[in-house]
Amino acid sequence: MLSYNLNSYICVHKYNKMFVILLITLGILTVCIILMSIQIILKKNGRFPNGHIGNNQALRKKGIHCAKTQDWEASEKKNLFEYLEQ
After folding, report:
1. In the chain, what percentage of residues exceed pLDDT 70?
2. DSSP assignment string, 43-84
3. Cα gap 27→29, rounded to integer Å
């Protein structure tokens, strides 16, 4: 009987420890999410920054576009066969 009580105590102790770690993790995640959203919450028209390549001015100056735009540009260009037909 004594060994059963000891085993159940160890099992309960493990779950308590896991629960504390889970609560700490959830607390850290909550703080991180709140800190990341402060600018969005406090600005009048706060939004997440646009990370799209097409809207980045520095990349546009270098002539770098997103994959969809590059595919569209490539399909608009004539190939050798189309030039020979003219």
Report:
1. 76
2. STT--PPP--GGG-HHHHHTT---HHHHHHHHHHS--HHHHH
3. 5
Q: How far apart are CA 34 and CA 13, in angstroms?
A: 32
Q: What would you report as the CA-atom Rg of the chain, rounded to the nearest whole angstrom? A: 29
Structure tokens at 3: 């060994």
DSSP 86: -
pLDDT digits (tens, 9 = 90+) for 4-31: 555 555 566 677 788 889 999 999 999 9
Main-chain phi, psi angles of 37, to 5 degrees: -100, 5
d(CA 19, CA 26): 11
